[in-house]
User: Which sequence fits this backbone?
């Protein structure tokens, strides 16, 4: 073996005793404590920048988790049920204009006639089915929208999802709304009957069995197809317009990412986008809304007969009242839910 081959040589380590008059400066407990600090990252916290992902934010609520659905769903119950409840007087006027244009030809006449015949109580008819029905619908709509949006994007792949965002927004919102409308349908039937007919009891607990005893489940769910015709365009246009407005404002006007903008400015962006989306979705979904009101008022009415009878002009009756009511409701819903997502630290999809 060559003298230069050091592979088989033992290291020249000689044990040396520490003199009695020398005390070690670092004790074993101090070493252990220092090791614990390294594990926690307290020593290196100022030297290493945390990564910008979910692991750097342990309190982030991930999309698709039960916690995410519950938070968004409860926010949906609050804004959908609560906002429609506040809009009940406008809803009464709108439905009466749509179903009895002879007696209620316009907003002012409908309001004066209702107050003269029934007083303030007449403007509150149908508040209970409104609160419960739209609360259940709001849970499904806002709870499942982001979940479906993520699932569809994962199914189609990141490249396709990035190139076809609008299609994914449409599919996700339509799916979530279709589920919510199943829960809404029987309460919508009760609401319209209570608001437009004097023969139906005015309270929910009496009106629901009253309609069921005479028409069965068919009477409670016969408006589901036109309800889908009304609500799916409403929700799809609302979410798509909102998403498009948000992206346009950040990308083309502010030229910043969401996380680069202050919380106050984020709320301002959400508010502007909500107002625009509220007006758009009210217009897009108005003709089916007229048909739904007509169908629920008359137990014997048929979808195509009602549509033919109304004609093009009749399909747009009560539009001003609906823009005022639905535009305000949609604005409130989108703004509050987006604020809740920020407040509860919910994950946002990557743009």
Assistant:
């Amino acid at each position: 073996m060559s003298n230069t081959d050091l592979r088989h040589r033992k290291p020249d380590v000689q044990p040396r005793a520490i003199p009695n008059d020398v005390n070690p400066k670092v004790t074993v407990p101090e070493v252990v404590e220092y090791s614990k600090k390294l594990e926690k990252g307290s020593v290196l916290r100022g030297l290493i920048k945390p990564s910008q992902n979910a692991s750097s934010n342990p309190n982030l609520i991930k999309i698709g988790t039960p916690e995410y659905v519950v938070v968004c769903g409860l926010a949906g119950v609050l804004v959908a049920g609560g906002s429609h409840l506040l809009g009940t007087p406008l809803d009464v006027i709108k439905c009466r204009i749509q179903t009895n244009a002879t007696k209620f030809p316009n907003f002012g006449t409908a309001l004066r006639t209702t107050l003269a015949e029934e007083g303030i109580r007449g403007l509150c008819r149908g508040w209970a089915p409104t609160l419960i029905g739209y609360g259940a619908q709001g849970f499904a709509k806002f709870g499942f929208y982001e979940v479906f949006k993520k699932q569809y994007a994962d199914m189609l792949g990141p490249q396709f999802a990035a190139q076809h965002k609008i299609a994914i927004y449409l599919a996700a919102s339509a799916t979530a709304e279709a589920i919510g409308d199943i829960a809404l349908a029987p309460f919508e039937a009760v609401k319209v009957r209570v608001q437009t007919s004097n023969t139906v009891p005015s309270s929910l607990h009496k009106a629901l069995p009253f309609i069921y005893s005479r028409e069965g489940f068919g009477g409670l769910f016969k408006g589901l197809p036109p309800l889908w015709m009304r609500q799916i365009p409403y929700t799809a246009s609302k979410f798509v317009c909102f998403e498009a407005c948000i992206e346009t404002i950040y990308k083309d006007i502010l030229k910043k990412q969401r996380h680069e903008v202050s919380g106050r400015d984020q709320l301002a962006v959400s508010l502007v986008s909500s107002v625009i989306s509220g007006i758009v979705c009210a217009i897009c979904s108005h003709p089916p809304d007229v048909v739904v009101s007509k169908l629920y008022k008359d137990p014997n009415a048929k979808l195509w007969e009602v549509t033919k009878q109304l004609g093009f002009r009749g399909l747009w009756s009560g539009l001003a009242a609906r823009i005022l009511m639905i535009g305000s409701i949609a604005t409130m819903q989108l703004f509050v839910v987006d604020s809740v997502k920020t407040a509860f630290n919910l994950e946002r999809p990557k743009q």
Summary: Residues 60-215 form one domain. Confidence is low (pLDDT under 50) at residues 40-55. Residues 154 and 161 are 8 Å apart (CA to CA).
